[in-house]
Design brief:
The chain is of the alpha+beta class and 145 residues long. It has a single domain, classed as NlpE, N-terminal domain (Lipocalin). The protein contains three helices and eight strands, in the order αβααβββββββ. An eight-stranded antiparallel barrel has the order 1-2-3-4-5-6-7-8. α2 packs antiparallel against α3.
Length: 145
């Protein structure tokens, strides 16, 4: 049995559309990529005057002890949950959740917090690389879980 000449191009189109559909969007749960954050912070600390590097190193310790989850939900809802240690001995870590909205613009995701501040994140593979809200302020890198 011979298939019509159109069968091969249609089959290829269906496969291509299926592959695109499986790629998925940015929706999902992301965790702070501590390794990437450490590399970025160490580079910034090295640029600081020596008498200010102690504070930067303290920030590295805090990042290592933190747990940050970012969730981009279908429909444009976003939430970020941060669990961080306190500086008081014996006190349990504190967890805080902030909500907001997100939207896709080209290869970027813009996350708008409750206070109206935007965080611009470049999307690549399963990573979100978000810029700091002020020049010189480190951004955040998230890995999709």
């Amino acid at each position: 049995m011979r298939l019509p000449k159109i069968a091969l191009p249609v089959s290829l189109l269906v496969l291509a559309l299926g592959a695109t559909a499986c790629k998925g969007g940015p929706e999902g749960t992301y965790a702070l990529d501590k390794d990437e954050m450490k590399k970025s912070m160490e580079a910034e600390i090295a640029k600081m005057p020596e008498d200010q590097q102690g504070f930067g190193k303290f920030a590295l310790v805090m990042i290592a002890a933190m747990d940050v989850k970012l969730e981009l939900k279908k429909g444009g809802e976003a939430s970020m949950t941060t669990t961080k240690p306190t500086l008081k001995e014996g006190e349990a870590p504190k967890t805080e959740t902030k909500t907001g909205k997100w939207r896709k613009e080209g290869d970027n995701v813009i996350i708008t917090a409750e206070d109206g501040k935007d965080m611009n994140c470049a999307v690549a593979e399963k990573k979100l690389t978000c810029t700091g809200d002020k020049p010189g302020k480190p951004g955040m890198v998230f890995q999709k879980s």
